[in-house]
Amino acid sequence: MAEVHAEMVANVWKIVVSEGDVVDEGDTLVILESMKMEIPVLTEDAGTVTKLQVKEGDVVQEGDLIAVID
Amino acid sequence: MLDSVLIANRGEIARRIIRTVRGMGLRAVAVHSEADADLPFVREADDAVLLGPANPAQSYLDIDKVLQAARTTGARAVHPGYGFLAENAAFARAVIDAGLVWIGPDPEAVERMGDKINARNLMEAAGVPVAAGTREPVSDLAQAERAAKEIGYPVMVKASGGGGGIGMGVARDDDSLAKAFEQACRAAARFGGEPAILLERYVERARHVEVQILGLADGTVVALGERDCSVQRRHQKVVEESPSPGVTPELRERMLAAAVRAGEAVAYRGAGTVECLVDADAQDFVFLEMNTRLQVEHPVTELVTGLDLVEHQIRIAAGEVYSVEPRSSGHAIEFRVYAEDPRRFLPGPGKIGVWEEPEGEGVRVDSGYTAGNTVTPFYDPLMAKLCVAGATREEALERGRAAVAAFRVEGPKHNLPFCAELLDHPEFVSGDYDTGLVSRMRKS
Questions:
Q1: Residues of chain A where predicted confidence (pLDDT) is lower than 50
Q2: From CA B13, how far away is CA B297, in angstroms rounded?
Q3: Residues of A in contact with B350 (CB under 8 A)
Q4: Residue B160 pLDDT > 70, yes or no?
Q5: Which A positions 8-67 lie with beta carbon below 8 A of chain B?
Q6: Number of Cα atoms under 13 Å in the Cβ half of residue B23
């Protein structure tokens, strides 16, 4: 099991995957937006998205949980 | 009578404009979002109006709210700064229709230059060199592939209505073209623009050099020298200098003359910038785009010419007729102090604990923040511009090193360590660098 966290304060601009999706290493899970920049959040592990903690429009703080990959 | 100016912007540029407005004996009116209520520009204005929430669409981009603020405060003129509504022709018209003085070029010039495809065609007709590229908007991938074949790879793909490097991408083959095309379309849609895409021949190892022009009230256009903006990450500028170390006097003369023609072609009034790509080996250049507003990096021109560009913008907008004799001496460099990590350049907003600006001969700091402020994720990451000037480039570099070392910022991540690294990098120090410099620095 691997947790994916936010690296910075940001708005959740776009959700790319859904819970239950199978992802590969390097796939984009969500796209954050901070300071006029799009920041794709990638998974470093292959597996299934078992939990998606954010939705579009949310504000995340540095370290907040974004998703769990199993 | 122009006795007061509303500044429709935020951060460092609002503060810098307020300084000149008040220095001219005029009343400065700030507008701001809830997130910016504690910033210095709000405090330093004579009057400040809360526009709305942090989201720019509900504050800095809301034309009705900005005009309402002008009415309630009795402001007589509007300065848009850069970004936000600065290149929005509809806003310029709304300001004029409200009976206020618009501190910028005619809305028509804003419109004609804002569409990059139109601007390219217009410049070509005016005898300004342009790169091989599309003359009509490209709207689908098949069309883009055909155009790329005709122009020849590599090509730069960009949204015709976009700006600030957002959505721009280089394509080296059909595969990367598909990606770059999709990215440009997304940027175009997101910033509310038409889905019109432009393809242009991409010049490898080019320098990004721009010419500052000033269109005077009597219709003459003068060129105030160039700025080299080749230190870029993600196609966005980080460091700028004037004069450009990669431009010979002969090339400078040709570029300045072309910039004047560009301004005259749209009957330009006020401060504007003609951006070019320079092939330093061939000592040749092509037109890139024209920015119909004050530029972020205008201080380097102010430092070498001794002119206050904001003051000239205001005097020209007020209809004052006078001439300007372009003169410059010495060398100036600007470092953009961004709230971002110095390795990957990812945003790093946060609360500022320590903020100590450097001082000294030849040092100018235009900042938007101070200790106790919070840099929020809602706006661009520019916290301050550290500018240095010297009699020679060597002296400016030396002052830059001392000033970067003396600038203390704690809290948000920041790129001052990158600036220090750059100031010791052989390519930058030699002056022989191009737009690929930052990515080369980060490859190792």
A1: none
A2: 10
A3: 9
A4: yes
A5: 8-11, 33-37, 39, 59
A6: 11
Segment B303-314 mean pLDDT: 98
Give B346→chain A minimum CA distance, Å: 8
Q: Which domains does chain B have, with CATH numbers?
A: 4-103 (3.40.50.20), 132-201 (3.30.1490.20), 207-441 (3.30.470.20)
In order of B30, B31, B39, the CA distances from B21 in angstroms are 11, 15, 18
| Residues B109-154: tens digit of each pLDDT | 999 999 889 999 999 999 999 999 999 999 899 999 999 999 999 9
CATH code assigned at A7:
2.40.50.100
Query: CA B213: distance to chain centroid?
Result: 13
Strand partners, B30: B7, B48
| Beta-carbon separation of B347 and A11 below 8 A | no
Closest residue of chain B to A33, computed from CA coordinates: B377
B165-203 per-position pLDDT tens digit: 778 899 999 999 999 999 898 888 776 656 789 999 998
**Cross-chain residue pair B346–A11, CB shorter than 8 Å:** no
Domain count, chain A: 1
Flag if A35 and B381 touch (Cβ within 8 Å): yes
Structure tokens given for B153: 């790879």
Q: Give me the helix-helix angle, B63-73 and B89-97, nearest 10°.
A: 30
Identify the domain containing residue A54 by its residue range.
2-69
Q: By mean pLDDT, which of B2-16, B36-50, B173-187, B353-367 is the weakest? A: B173-187
Q: Environment class of residue B342 by beta-carbon count within 10 Å: exposed (0-12), middle (13-18) or buried (19+)?
A: middle
